[in-house]
Fold each of these.
Amino acid sequence: MEIKKQIQSMIAEAKIYCTQGLLEEAIVYYQNAKNLVEKNEKVKNRETILKTIEDRIISLENEIQKVKDLKESAPVSSEVQDLIKTKFAFSKDENESALEGAIALAKFGQYERALQEFDELLQVDSLRLAAAKNIIRCHIAMSTIEKAVDIYQEWMAGDLFPQDQLYKINIFFKSIIDSKGLDIMLPQVEEPVDFEMNELGESENEDDEFMDISSIGISLDTGSEKKRMIDLDVSFQQGNEINLIISSKNKDLIDNLKVGFRLNDVQFYSPFAIFTGSGIVSAKTQIGFGPKQGDYSLDITVINK
Amino acid sequence: MANINIKKREIECKIVYYGPGRSGKTTNLEYIFKSYKNYVSGEMISIKTEGDRTLFFDFLPIGLGTIKGYDVRVQLYTVPGQVQYTSTRRLVLKEVDGIVFVADSLKVRREKNMQSLKDLQNNLKGYDLSIFKVPLVLQYNKRDLSKQGIPLMHSELMEKELNSQLKVPSFQASAITGQGVGVTLKECLMLTLKSIRKQLKTVK
C-alpha cells in the first residue's frame, strides 16, 4: 500500500475508535500515522498533516484526563438516590434494610443523603449505635471531621444514647482520631460499670459484626519493602471490609496489592486489641479527584480473625 | 439470590450486564427499553457521565408476566466498565441471579475482554459465587463494525479465548441495530429461571 493510503487508513481507523469512545486506541492509531508521516519527507503538506494529527492527539489526551478525573461520588438526582437506597438493601427486616440502604448511599459517595438517612436511624433503638458510627464515618470520608466532633458533643450533652453506647462511640471515634494523628481532644466518657472489653465487638447489625479496625500492618514477600512491616491507616470500614488510602509514591506496595491478592499474617489493630488474620484485596481504585488525587483507594476483605 | 415470595407467588430476579468499558452494555439496555415496550415495567435509569460513560449503573425493570403461576419481575443492571470502578461493579453484582457478559469484538479490545472476564470471576468470588455455576451468557458485540472495515476478532477466536472453559451459550450481536440483543437476554432469562426453579424446590 502506498504511504498516503496507509496514513489515510490509519487516520480513518483512529476516527472510528473515537466514535466508539475508545480514545486510547484512537491515540495509538493517530500516533502510528504521525510516525509514518515523520519518516516520509515526501508526503505532501507534511507539516500541516503533522500539526493536525498532533492537535488531535492532544485533544484526545485531554478527554482521557477528563474521564480519569471523574469522581466516583458525583452527585446524582434524588430519584437515583432513592433507587440506590431501595435496590441495594437486601434484608427482609425493615430496619436492617433501611440501614443497608443508607450504607449503600455512602458507598456510592452520596454522603449528604446518607447522613440524612443515618440521622433518622438514630431514632431506632437497635440501629442507633451503628447509625452513629456511620455518621462519623461519613464525615471522615467527607473530610469534615470537625463537624463529626460537634455532633459527638451534641450526643454527649443529650440523652439519646445510654452510657455504654456513648462509651463505645467514644472508643470508636478516638481510634480514628489517633490513627490519623489528629490533634483533637474528645470529651471523656466514663467507663460504664460492668463493661466488658468484648462488648466493643458486639454486633448492632450484621454489617457491624467485626471489631472496629483502626489500622493494619502488612509485610510483602517481594519488592524493596520485602519483609518490612508496613502500617496503614483504615479510612473506612463496613463489617469485614476495610478501606485504606495508599500514597501514589508507594509504588511497590501499589504494584503488589493487586485485586484478588491474598494477604497472610496481617496485624489488625483495634482500639483494644491486636489480632492476626488474613485479607483479600477486593478493589483497587486510583483516586481521580480531590486532595488525594493520584493516590490509591484499596478495599480489603478481612477473611478471618 | 432471587426474591421469591411463595405466598404472593412473586419472583423478582436480577440480571447484570458485565463487560469492559464501551463494549455496549448500556446500548443493550437501551435497545431493550426501546423495542420491548410490552415487557418494560418502568423507566430506564442511566447514570452517565463525561463521554457517555456509565458512572454507577443503568437500571431497567421488566416484567415477564406469569410463568408457572408466578409473577416474574426482572431487574436489568449494567456495571461501569472502566477499570477504575471496581468497587461499584462489586456493589452492583451483589445478589445477582444471572449475568450477560458483553464482549467487544474489536481486535484492539481483545485484552480488555479477558481482563474484564477475570474481574467478573474475582468479584463473584467475593460473594462466594463461581463463574462456572452462575447463570451466564456471552455476547460478542459490535459485529456490524466489520462493514466499516474495522478489524474484528473472528467469533471462533473469541469463543476459544473467552468460552473454552466456561462453555456457556454465546451470541454474536450488534446492540446498536438490535441484532442478537433479544436472543441473548432470552437465553440468560431461561438459565436464570431454571436456576431459580432449583432454588424454589429447595425452599419447598
Amino acid sequence: METTSSESNGHNGHHRHMPEIGEYTAQVANEEIRAWFGAPGSWHGKALFVAGALLVAGIVAFVIRASSDGFDERGPWAYYAAGFAFLLTTVGSAPLVSVALRMSKAHWRRGLSRLSELFAISSIFMLIVYIPLPFMLPVVDDRPSLWINWHGHAPHIYDSMLLVTTVLCGLAILLIGARPDFAALKHETKGIRRWYYSIIGGNWKGTKKEWQRLRAAQGVLGGLYFMMLIFTQLIVSSDYALALIPGWKDSIYPAFYSLTGLQGALAVTLIAMFWVRRTGLQRYISLDQFWGLAKLLLATSLLWFYFWWSGFFVFWYGRSVAEVGVLEYMIKGAYLAPFLGAIAFSFFVPCFFFLIWNPIRKSIRGPAIAATIVMLGIMFSRVREYVAAFSIPKGMVGSTHIEGILGTNTPDAIDILLLLGILGGSAFFYLVALRIFPAVNIWEQREFTLLRKVRPYFKRYAVVLGKPD
Amino acid sequence: MQERREKTESQINTDLLSAMLDNHLWFWIVLAGLGLVILAGAAAAGYMFDRGLGVTGLNRPVFWGFFITNFVFWVGISHAGVMLSAILRLAQAEWRRPATRAAEVLTIFSLATALIFPLLHTGRPWRVFYWVGLPILPYDLSRGIFQNVRSALLWDPSAIFTYLTSSTLFVFIALVPDLAVARDRTTGWRRALYATLALGFRGNARQWRLQAIAGILLSALILPVFVSVHSIVSWDFAAAVSVEGWHQTIFAPYFVIGAVHSGVSGVVTAMILMAWLFKWQDYIRPEHFDALGRLLIVVATAWFYFFFIEFSFGLFSQEPSEIALRQTQVFGQPWGWMYLTFIMASYFIPVPLWMFRRVRRSLVLMFWTTILVNIGMWLERFLIIVPSLMRKQGLTFVWGDYNPSPIEVLLVAASFAVVLGGVLLFSKIFPLIPIYDAKEGKYIEAEIQVGRRTVPAVIREE
C-alpha cells in the first residue's frame, strides 16, 4: 500500500526532515524479510558450527562427570544446576518480552516479537538440561518447603510438570503467531519445509474470524505463559536453592529470581536483536526497538538492587544465628567473589556506565553491550545461589542454620565445559530456529504499515500511530 | 479507544476553571459536613491528649492499632501521585492527562494526613521534639540522648517529608502554566495570588521548554523517593524480629505494590467524583477508566503475587508459631471474616469484574469496585499489625486482644474528612485537571484511515 513517499511530495516549501521510520511499504517488508530468511548469510553456518562444538564439549563433560561422580552427591553438579537456573532466567523467560509488550500494545514490539518468541525453541534444550536435576533433590520431609505436608516426591513431579507446561506454552505462542507467515510461505517452498509449513500454517486463509481467533489465542496463551513462568520460577527457586541452604528463609528471593528472569529475557533479546541486525533487517530491528528495551533493562537493573537490598537489609537487621550464617556464607565468605560479580554486572556497571546515559541508551551498540554485561551478572548470581545451595553437605540440609565455616566450590575444567556446553546448546537451538521461522514477524510488519502514517506537522514531519483498541 | 470531544481552547479554559470560579451550593454543604467530622475528630484528639492513651483500645501487647493502620493506609494512598503522574508521563501514556493533577493532590493531602497519626499515636505530640532533636530545640541532645540512625523509625519521617516536599514541588511545577491562565481570568486577591505563583509565566518557547524539562527531571528524581517511602514504612515492621509474621524480606516491595494498588484505586474514585460533581465528563471519559482499569488489573495481580509469597513463606519453614499465626489470621475470630473480606474486596471481586470492558467503562461500577479495594487494603494493614502483635513472642508475658475505642474510630473518620476536604478546597483555588495538558492532548490527537475504518491515533514527533 502507499505510505509516506506520496505524502511527502506535496509539502509546502519548509525544509522538513522526513523520518526514516515511514519509508517502507507492506510489499517491501514482505520481500526483505523473506529474502533474509531464505539466505541469512555465511555467518549462520559458522555460528552454528561454534555453538555445536560447544554443545558437543558439554555433552562430553556431562558423560565424564556422570561416570566419575554419579548422581548421588549434589556438589559435583552444582555448576550444572547453576547453568540450568541461568537458562531459566534468560532464554527460558525470553518469550515474556513479546508477551508483555503485546499485552501493553506497544507498537515498537513488532520488530522484536518473533526474536523473543524463538527462544521457546531454546527452552526445549533447557528442559533436556533439567532432566537429571530432580533426582538430586531431597524429599520435602527433610527440609523447608512450600509443598507443606505434600510428602513423598512432590517437588520432583510438580516442578517438572510446571516446567514442561511453561515450555509448551511458550512454544504454542511461537507456533500460533507464526501461522499466518507459514501459510504465506508454504506456497514458495518445497520438501520438508513445505510439509511443516503446511501443518503449522494449516488452512489459514486470513478471514476476519481467523484473525480474531489468533488474537484471542495470543491473549489467553500470553496470560497463561506469564502465570506459569512466574510460578515455575517461584518453585524452582525455592526447591533448588532456598530450601537447601539452612536458615535461608528469604521470601523476596523468588520475586528477585523472577525479576532477574525479566532482566535476562530483555538482555538475551537485545543480544539476539543486535546480531541479527548486523546481518540485515535493519529497517525492522531499528533504534526504536533498542531504545525501548534499553529503558526496560535500566528499570529492571535498578530494581535488581532494590530487591537485593530489601532482602539483605532485613537479614542484616535481624542478626539471628540463621541470618548471620547465610550472610557469612553467601555474601561475605565463600561466595564473596560471585556476589561482587553479580552486583557489579547486574546493577552497577550496566546502570551507571551505560543505561543511565541518554546517548548510550538511545543507540544500537550501547544497549547490546549493557545486555551482555547483564548476562554475565546473571551468571554470577546463579553461581552464587545454586552452587552455594548444591554445595551444602547432605546432612546439613534441613538444619535451622549453617554450622561451621563452609568452603567455596570452585569450578574445575569439567564444570566450565558443562557451562559452556549449556550456553552453546541453547545458542545452537536458537540458530536452528532462525532457519525454521522468519526472524521478523511478516504479518505484524504488514499490519504496522497500515497503522503508521507520516504526516507534515507544523514545520516538521511526525509519525501518526493508529491505536485501534 | 479515544473518544474525542472537539473543544476550543477557550472552551477548555472555561470548563476547567468553572470549579474555581463558579459557586456551587453542594460544594459548601459538603465542605461543612466534612468540617463537622474534622471538628469531631479534633475534639476526640483533645480528649485523648487530656486523658491519655488509656481512652484508646491500645493495651499490652497490642500497642499499634487503628492509628498505625491508618498511617500505613494513607502513606499507601499517597503512592498514586507518582505512579500516575511521573511513571505515566515518562511512559508517554496519553490517557494520563486528566488524572495526573488529582493523583498528585491526593498524594499531598494523604501524606500530610498520614503524618498526623504517628503524632497522635504518641499520646503526647509535643514530645515529638524528644524524637527529632531539632538543632534549634536541643532538649534531648543536651542530655546526651541521640537518635538511633539505624532505626527505620527515624528514616520514616525523613522519607515522608522528602516525598511531601518533592510532591509539592511536582504539583507546583505542573501548575505554573495553569496559574498563568487563572491570573489572566481573575481579579482582586485571586489575581494577586495567581500572579505571584505563576512566576511571570507568559507561555514563550523558553518557558515551555524549561517547564517540560523540569517536569521530566522531577518525574525521574521522585521515583527513588516514591519507592523508599513505603519501603521504609515496611521496615518499621520487618526489622522487628520478635513479632511473628513481620520479619520478612519481601515486605518492602509488597508494601510498595500494595500502596500503588490502593493509591490508583483511590485516584479512580476521586476522578469519578470529579466527573460527577464538576460535570467534566468531556474530559474524564470512559476511555480513561478503561485504561486505568487495565492498569489496575496488572497492579492488583502483581500485588496478589507478593501477597501469596508473603503468606506462603510464613509456612515455608514450618515453624509451629508461624503456622499458628496464619491460622489465627485466617480461621480465628473475629479475624477470619475480616481476612475473607480483605481478600475478596482487594482482589477476587474487583479483578474479575475489571476483566470486562463494559465494567471498566462504567463509572458507577468502577466507583464501587475501587472503594471496595480500599476497604480491603485498609483491612490488610490492620490484619498485618494486630494479630501479629497479639501473639508477640519473646519478652511478652501477656497475650491480649484489641478493641478500638470510639475515639480511634472518630479520628480515623476525621482523617478521611481531612483528605476529602483538602482536595475539595484545592479545587476551589486551583484547577484540578491540568488545563495545559488537556490542550496539549488535543494537539496530538489524530485519526487515520485503515480501509473503511477510521482509527484514533496519536502523533509522535520524530
